[in-house]
Amino acid sequence: MADLGGRLTRSRGPRFGAIDLSWFRAQAYADGVTESERTERLAQLAADARAAEVRGEGWVACEAWGRYELVRDGGRDPDELLAEGIALSRMAITLAGEAERGEA
């Protein structure tokens, strides 16, 4: 198992690794970025995305909204992000099963 500066540890099970999230919680969205700077960056990214939408540049708008979501999620609790990811994975598995059975 790769060692990520001591943050990746082997759990009791032979096939599973666990990430120590306390290290991630201790890190800021980005070193030296304040909440007001992050809010300002979010506002600028949203304005860029809306401007691209007005110009009819859908792909550019999509990329700008993607950057917006990355900055926004950078300030979220890692456990919350993990729970959201698990819920989305479960939904995808359910939908894939329905599609396979012809229910969708």
Explain how this protein is built.
- The chain is mainly α and 104 residues long.
- The chain has a domain at 31-101.
- It contains four helices and two strands, in the order E-E-H-H-H-H.
- The chain has helices spanning 21-26, 35-54, 58-74, 78-101, and strands at residues 8-10, 17-19.
- Strands 1-2 form a two-stranded antiparallel sheet.
- Helix 2 (35-54) packs antiparallel against helix 3 (58-74).
- The longest helix is centred in the last third of the chain and has 24 residues, at 78-101.
- 2% of the residues are buried.
In short:
The chain is mostly helical. The protein has helices at 21-26, 35-54, 58-74, 78-101; strands at 8-10, 17-19.
Question: Structural class, please?
Answer: mainly alpha
> Tally of extended strands?
2
**Largest pleated sheet:** 2 strands, antiparallel
Helix content: 55-70%
Quaternary: single chain
Coarse morphology = flat
Chain-averaged pLDDT: 76
Q: Count of helical segments? A: 4
Secondary-structure blueprint:
Elements: E1 8-10, E2 17-19, H1 21-26, H2 35-54, H3 58-74, H4 78-101
Antiparallel strand pairs: 1-2
Key terms:
104 residues; mainly alpha; two-stranded antiparallel sheet; 4 helices; flat
